[in-house]
Amino acid sequence: MAGKPQSKQPRAVAVNILKGGFGKSTTAINLSKELEVRNGPTLLIDMDDNGHTTFNLGHKDKYEGENHMQKILVDGEDPTDYIVPVSGDLDLLPAHDLLEEVEDNLKSAMASSQRLYRNVVDPLLGDRYEYIIVDTPANRGKLNDNALYATKNLIIPLRPESGWESGITQTTDRVIKEAREYFDLDLLALVPTDLEERLDQQTRDRDLLYAINSRDGLAPFVPDFARLTEADWDAIDAKEYDGELPGIRHRGSIDMAHRAQKPLHDHDPECDQLRCYEELAEIVEQGGITR
C-alpha cells in the first residue's frame, strides 16, 4: 500500500473510513486548518451527508435550501459560487441534506466518478488553493468514488472502538484495492484519535496502538506521534516509559472547539494535540511518511 513520498506541492486528500463515528470530521477540520496556517489557501469539502463538518464550522444554514452539490457535481455550475469562508485562508464547500439524491443522480451521469475532480479539484487545486481536503461519506457509493478519484491520496482515522479492525479491513478491501484497479491511490497515514486510556493495562487504546504498530501492512503508515517500538512497549509494561503519550489524545478543548464552531487552532491555540495535526499536515505536504 505504500506510496513513495513526493516533494511538497499542491495536493488533495480524502479522509476516509467505511465506519461512522471514527473521527473523520474532526481530523478533516483540524488537518485543513494546520495546512492553511502553514501554507495559505486551503479548501475543505464536506461530502458526508451527516454534515458534521459543515455544522461544526458554523454553516448549518447551507445544509438545507438550495442543493448546491447537485448544481456543482451534476449540473456543472461554478463551485466558487457556493464556497464559504471559515477563518483566515481556510474555506469550506458545505455538505447538503440531499446528498443522497445527488448520489442517485450521479449513477446515470456521464463520467459519474470524475465529477468532483473535473468540476472542483482540477480547476481549483494549485490555482486558488494549495491543498484540498475532502471529508467523505462512511459508505461506498458514487460520492465516495468521486472523492477518491479526485484526491488519489487517503488518510484513515481510527478510534479505539469495537469495529475499528473491520473498518480498516473494509476500507482496504472495498476502497483501496478496488480503486487501484482503475487509478493510483496512495495511503498517506493511519491516524489513531480520541485516545484516553492507559497503555500499561489491557485497554482498547493499547489494542489499537499495538496492532497498527506491529503489523507489517500497517506500521509504515503510522505517524511518529502514534509510533511505538517494541522497546517502547517493554518500557510501558515496566512503567518506565517517559515519552509522549501516543496518538491524538482526547481533550475537552477539541469537543469545545466543535461547539464553538471553530477549528481547534482557532479555539485553543495552546492545545498540546495541535502538534499531532501539524505533523499530519507535514505528511500531506510531503505526500507520505518519511522515517
UniProtKB/TrEMBL annotation:
Pfam families: AAA_31
Family annotation (Gene3D superfamilies): P-loop containing nucleotide triphosphate hydrolases
Every AAA domain range: 12-175
CDD domains: ParAB_family
Region forming the signal peptide: none
Name assigned to this protein: ParA family protein
UniProt organism field: Halonotius aquaticus
